[in-house]
Amino acid sequence: MLYDRWCRVASQRPSALALSDLFSGQHWTFRELRDSAESYSCEEEIVYPQGHSAEFILALLAAWRLGKVTCPLEPGGAAPKVPRPPSGCVHLKSTSATGGVPRLVAFTASQLAADAENIVATMGLRADWPNLGVISIAHSYGFSNLVLPLLLHGIPLVLVPSPWPETVRRASEHYQALTLAAVPALWRAWHEAGAIPPQVRLAISAGAPLQAALEGTIFKRHRLKVHNFYGSTECGGIAYDASETPRTDDACVGAPLRNVRLSLGPDGCLAVESAAVGQSYWPQPSESLAGGRFRTSDLAEVSGGVVRLCGRLSDQINVAGRKIAPATVEAALCQHPDVDECLVFGVPSPEANRAESIVACIVARHPVASERLRTFLMEKLSDWQLPRFWWFVDSLAVNSRGKISRSEWRERYLAQQPPATAGVSRHENEST
Predict the structure, then answer these.
(1) CB-side exposure of 393: number of CA atoms within 13 Å?
(2) Could you report the per-residue pLDDT of 329-342, keeping only the tens digit for each?
(3) Which of 8, 24, 174, 202 is the most core-located residue (most Cβ within 10 A)?
(4) pTM above 0.85, yes or no
(5) What are the start-end ranges of the H helices in 312-405?
């Protein structure tokens, strides 16, 4: 199915530019890419496209042609030792492990195609606005937003060797109009470097929450709306902010994608139904992903056709029997003028009756005492919701997929000897 559809796409625009690999300097028209894929061979039962180059695309097309199962890998990633997925499943995706251990998700050809269809239709991806590929094409976000639109919808792809501001700026110079999908950390870096290309007509951010303040600042300086996109490996695209003006609410992630139906479970978590939902986890299925329905662990509100995220069920902090979502404390902290970024999580409490204590990890614009932050929060939160411990750091580093992993930062905090349990200023209690 997938290879036949690719051949139809290639035959419709044979002489048009399909793929540019700026690292190697090579370029392919749709005809040339089809011919190269015809001669590409792969012997493995499961093919592992890897890296950020044309080799990834060619390996994928060869696997489609030969009826092989594909499982994209990040550069340097090791192939998982799993049996071939059930009959009809042609693709395995790895989850991002934001909340713990990564898992594999099995997809049929029609499920992959449905995700691409929903994304292209909702976002309005266009053949005359090539995708500038700076994010990982092995990760679900890049695969569905860059690779599948190229192969199933004829949206050209320009692979950029690195996301460094100057590299992105130079890569854009030869195009009149571009689509640029990235993660918030990259949008921030490009904005601060003054390197957001003026050729960008459609800007997309996903992979992690996009702060409304950053979105507004970019819009004011560049007159460019960065559209927030929310999705999951298990089900592809979920919601998209198609509005032309900046959001004012960090929790708002937009409206459901076309052909995507959303509901809330008894626990307040979002449930997704669409033709793009994966077949199952593999090799250990779960009731949370089955029958075209994925029950996320994201606490949410759906009102007026708009989705608001309220944190993850697994991230909730248990303070003496009462639950609080880290996002509640983070939203209040970010209102302080000296707080640039923050991350909140729970750790085992030294007091037996409290279960967990709240830790606030702070990136400060200027040196600030933790007591000042606490006093500021007392006007916005209840006493039991206030952080007990403060950790001042230079930056909240993201992982290889552009995500800030709460679990990874919690582990880093607990691994300190002794832990940074009381910060008084950015410079007096600093951790790298």
Answers:
(1) 21
(2) 998 999 999 998 89
(3) 202
(4) no
(5) 326-333, 370-378
